[in-house]
Design brief:
Radius of gyration of chain A: 35 Å
Number of domains of chain A: 3
Helix content of chain A: 25-40%
Structural class of chain A: alpha+beta
Strand order of the largest sheet of chain B: 1-2-3
CATH topology of the largest domain in chain A: Beta-lactamase
Largest sheet of chain B: 3 strands, antiparallel
Number of helices of chain B: 16
Shape of chain A: elongated
Distance between the termini of chain B: 20 Å
Shape of chain B: globular
Largest sheet of chain A: 7 strands, mixed
Oligomer: heterodimer
Helix content of chain B: 55-70%
Number of helices of chain A: 22
CATH superfamily of the largest domain in chain A: DD-peptidase/beta-lactamase superfamily
Number of strands of chain B: 3
Number of strands of chain A: 21
CATH architecture of the largest domain in chain A: 3-Layer(aba) Sandwich
Structural class of chain B: mainly alpha
Chain lengths: 617, 371
């Protein structure tokens, strides 16, 4: 070291630099130890989290069939053109010619494209946005042909709910849509996330848990821009369970047709199997097209149509059969007759009351529609004598009428497997209110209640259920649409979903003696064979029916009713018809009910003997 | 040229240092391949190493004293190249004009100009006689450094400019500057740098993005995690992920292949190394650098004249400092500034300047017995 002497301790200074260099490198080593050895696992996790994405694969929803296996609701595959976010961030959207190119290629309005692109800029990275849903084959091939120019575009499969029968059965089936923020908070939908599709209204909502499939996912590796590099794992979705309903599509369509032909085009026709409560048809008019809700909520026209449904004075979204409450008018005389026996106000031996052309209550005379003398029960039903029921009601007293209401469960929902059913209103619910407001329950109210007016407003489904129960010798079933949910086999990732039928409770046995039941059925049969319900007389098929002409709001026409079952003494089917604001029940509701029976008969004849035998055992 | 190499020269040729440098550079090629396996950058780097080795050989077998004599010419060329960067010949990348494209070759004069600057300082300070450093000498030293630094700051490339200061520091320190000035300078720096930063921020001289780069070091998660913080976070994730021995199995999902790590083959090559070879690989590399620097410093001790000693020490200091800056940035405790890792980062300028520098060391060592 020849230089050492020349400077102030040069060797020491060189050594100092040497040491400083080593210290710097040692600092790096310590920091490396901290990052790689101490926190290695933490960073490994973070690296994994940012490169691995789960892309959900939507599960097909279970289809819905009628009792004979005809498709009522299906899912059909549709394709969406989606755009990934990250590459778009760099583009100047205002100036970018891509807007026009997308618009041209996908047959969209440039405004719509620009809107969507603006929207995606606000989103988080890695998210995608649907640029065009329901893409056509042409759109798909355009995207595929331009994969190199527009790597941000991708085609995604999206099963879309499809209701092939349009407005028919809309109230039974409901529709599907994105879960609402409010539903997300509720317990029923725990575990769901925004954007998930759930059933809304009808069977879609009531049985959503079973119809809904279990979504699968693709586990993929993405790069820093969220572009998929490789697939690690695919968990295929598990489809939802198929639902076989009790609906008979032919009867249902006949009911829809009858309502379409009705004068006001507003009303209800519902039909059920009296022997087990299986609903064969339920039509409520006016109706709506569920497809509009599925497809349309994203388009301007669709939103307009949905708004129109909500604003329509005909209330098409409202299921009249389970939510509408109407005065039953003379159809109420059927449960009243049963109540008369139950209360002891009459017996099979002694059941005559004066018609008197009406009744004088205080200073007011309430008329009957005619002068029926002093009829017994059968002609009273057949000719719909109001005077008879005024006196029966008074003899029973309101307390016994309320007892009948409780026995026949007009104070409860029927328990049909549809959401948002409403309870009928009866003297049971009104009595406390009337007594509070008026001080007492007056006889005139009992008289009016006896013929299904004033304090009696019932849902068509509750009336159908009780009339069917009276026909079925006093066995009252819960009306329902579920026949069977099909089993779904277990997969590698999901458990088996067992099949099941409707959990039918034992029918409620009504306190109705066979002779009493037979007398009421005879009255209804007489109404058809020679009374007010002659219009539903079908040769060779004994229909038992009762008409009703219920006073509606002041200034509008009466509601036309008919309740019925057939065959009269060994019923299989019950039908209720209600046409709003048209006039006389026999004239308007009668043909509607008859149309349903004719369809039923046309199907029944060839198999009649065999099926009847099986059913009766 | 060949005639000049005599047997004795070959015997005295510093094989160990040369092989060490080539080994690190080859290790770098492997990491560049890991960073961008789908690209041909690694093969370009091999060509770069070939060119750099040719330059290295020429420098190593030349008489360094003649080159030091000619230092003012090289210094002038260096300044001219730095000036050219600012003309339309300069290529702008990410808002910085740091590159020069000549005959299709792109290089970074700020990297290359380091050597003429070292030579110029060595020429001046090597000629001085003993005794403590004079104030006049300090001013001349500062003036020599100011030439390239000012031009680099105009690019602007603060990161490269910073790497010039340790060179001057080392030269002053070895030119018998009084220890109390050294301590005084360090204390002053410790006070002045934060003060200057705060004043700079208040006065608006230090721009928002520059502040973010600094703040990103203190808390990368909250300061702009998609901007400057993003580089720091991703680099730390990449390093940490390597663990003890690096990623096992396929490299298809590495941070650089998936493009989470920015600039993997250049500024963040050390993160790639960390991800692929783990703590073991990284420590081995740091030890290799330590060994290389030690070899240089031993060479400096053996040098038989001041100028040669100063050249080697300036190179060793610059190397150590640059490694510290680059790896410190990669490990997330120094700001993200574009300083390449010597011998490792892809790029001809980096290879060329480092190999030429080591060429000088070899040349100086080879001639330590010559008078």
């Amino acid at each position: 070291m020849k230089l050492q002497e020349q400077a102030q301790n040069l060797g020491g200074r060189i050594a100092t630099i040497h040491v400083v260099a080593f210290i710097l490198l040692s600092i790096l080593g310590v920091r490396l130890y901290y990052l790689q050895i101490v926190n290695g696992e933490y960073y490994e996790k973070r690296a994994e989290n940012q490169r691995i994405r789960l892309i959900p694969i939507p599960a097909p929803r279970g289809a819905i069939f009628d009792r004979h296996g005809k498709i009522l609701v299906d899912s059909r595959p549709t394709f969406n053109v989606v755009i990934s976010n990250e590459p778009m961030k760099q583009l100047d959207i205002e100036a970018d010619e891509r807007i026009d190119e997308y618009a041209y290629g996908l047959n969209l309005e440039p405004d719509v494209v620009a809107d969507r692109l603006k929207q995606i800029k606000k989103q988080n990275d890695f998210e995608t946005l649907v640029l065009k849903d329901n893409a056509s084959m042409q759109d798909i091939s355009w995207v595929e042909a331009h994969q190199l120019e527009y790597p941000e575009l991708r085609i995604e499969l999206q099963p879309q709910r499809f209701y092939p029968h349009g407005t028919a059965m809309a109230h039974i089936l409901g529709y599907v849509g994105e879960i609402s923020p409010k539903q997300l908070e509720s317990e029923r939908w725990a575990g769901m996330k925004a954007g998930d599709i759930i059933g809304k209204g009808g069977l879609e909502e009531y049985y959503d848990e079973f119809l809904r499939g279990r979504p699968g996912f693709r586990k993929v590796i993405v790069d820093s821009r969220g572009r998929i590099q490789r697939e690690i794992e695919v968990v295929p979705p598990q489809a939802g369970q198929d639902l076989i309903t009790t609906i008979d599509l032919d009867i249902q369509m006949a009911a829809e047709q009858q309502l379409a032909n009705s004068a006001s085009k507003r009303g209800v026709i519902a039909s059920m199997d009296t022997r087990n409560g299986e609903m064969l048809a339920l039509a409520s008019w006016p109706s709506f097209d569920p497809n509009v809700f599925v497809q349309g909520s994203k388009t301007r026209e669709g939103r307009k149509q949905i708004a129109a449904y909500w604003q329509d004075e005909g209330r098409p979204l409202y299921n009249r059969a389970i939510q509408g409450r109407y005065p039953p008018g003379s159809t109420w005389k059927i449960p009243m007759s049963a109540g008369g026996f139950q209360s002891g106000a009459m017996t099979t031996a002694s059941n005559s009351f004066a018609c008197g052309g009406g009744i004088q209550i205080g200073n007011r005379f309430t008329k009957c529609m005619g002068h029926h003398g002093h009829p017994s029960l059968v002609p009273a039903i057949a000719r719909s004598c109001n005077g008879y029921y005024y006196r029966l009601g008074l003899k029973m007293s309101i307390e016994k009428m309320i007892e009948m209401i409780e026995t026949y469960e007009y104070d409860k929902i029927t328990g049909i497997d549809l959401p948002n059913e409403r309870v009928s209103q009866t003297p049971k619910s009104w009595k406390p209110i009337v007594e509070k407001n008026e001080g007492r329950w007056s006889d005139i109210r009992t008289v009016m209640a006896s013929i299904g007016q004033d304090t009696v407003v019932v849902t068509p489904i509750s009336l159908l259920r009780t009339v069917a129960a009276i026909g079925e010798h006093g066995k009252m079933y819960v009306p329902h649409f579920l026949k069977e949910f099909k089993k779904i086999n277990a997969t590698e990732h999901f458990e088996e979903r067992p099949g099941f039928g409707f959990q039918r409770p034992e029918p409620k046995i009504l306190p109705l003696k066979p002779e009493e039941q037979k007398m009421i059925a005879t009255g209804m049969w007489s109404a058809v064979s020679g009374g007010t319900a002659r219009i539903v007389n079908i040769p060779g098929f004994d229909v038992a029916a009762k008409t009703g002409t219920a006073q509606a709001a002041v200034g509008s026409k009466d509601h036309a009713w008919m309740v019925s079952f057939a065959p009269a003494y060994e019923p299989e089917i019950a039908v209720v018809g209600l046409i709003e604001n048209v006039g006389f029940g026999g004239t308007h509701a009668g043909p509607a009910v008859k149309g349903v029976y004719e369809t039923y008969l046309a199907k029944r004849e060839p198999l009649a003997d065999e099926q009847d035998e099986v059913a009766r055992r | 040229m060949v005639a000049i190499i005599e047997k004795r020269d070959l015997r005295d040729f510093d094989w160990l240092t040369s092989v060490l440098a080539v080994a690190i550079a080859c290790f770098g090629v492997w990491q560049i391949y890991n960073a961008t396996p789908n690209d041909t950058i690694w093969s370009k780097q091999i060509v770069g190493i070939g060119i750099a080795l040719a330059a290295f050989t020429v420098v190593a077998i030349s008489d360094y004293r003649r080159i030091i004599d000619a230092a003012p010419i090289f210094y002038g060329i260096g300044l001219f190249l730095l000036f050219l960067v600012l003309t339309p010949l300069g290529v702008e990348v990410n808002g910085q004009k740091a590159w020069l494209r000549i005959f299709g070759l792109q290089f970074q004069p700020s990297e290359v100009a380091k050597i003429p600057t070292i030579l110029m300082l060595a020429k001046y300070f090597g000629a001085r006689k003993g005794g403590t450093l004079q104030f006049r000498e300090v001013l001349i030293g500062v003036a020599i450094l100011a030439g390239p630094v000012v031009l680099i700051m105009l690019e602007p490339d603060a990161g490269q400019a910073i790497t010039y200061f340790p060179i001057l520091g080392a030269v002053f320190f070895l030119s018998a500057i009084k220890v109390r000035y050294v301590i005084g300078g360090l204390v002053l720096a410790a006070v002045m740098i934060p003060t200057a930063y705060i004043v700079g921020v208040k006065a608006g001289v230090i721009k928002r993005y520059q502040q973010d780069r600094i703040m990103a070091i203190i808390d990368p998660e909250s300061v702009d995690p998609r901007g400057y913080g993003y580089h720091t976070i991703q680099s730390m994730i990449t390093v940490g992920k390597g663990g003890l021995s690096g990623i096992k199995g396929n490299t298809e999902t590495s941070q650089s292949v998936l493009k989470f790590l920015p600039e993997p083959q250049t500024d963040f090559i050390f993160a790639v190394t960390a991800e692929n070879t783990g703590f073991i690989g990284c420590v081995s590399l740091l030890l290799a650098y330590a060994l290389l620097i030690s070899r240089l410093i031993i060479g400096a001790r053996e040098a038989n004249e001041r100028a040669g000693m100063l050249v080697i020490m300036a190179i060793a200091t610059a190397l150590a400092f640059q490694i510290f800056m680059n790896v410190g940035m990669t490990l997330g405790f120094l700001p993200v500034i574009g300083v390449p890792l010597p011998l490792m980062s892809a790029g001809l300028s980096n290879l060329l300047s480092t190999f030429i520098a080591i060429g000088f060391v070899v040349s100086i060592k080879m001639r330590r017995f010559v008078n």
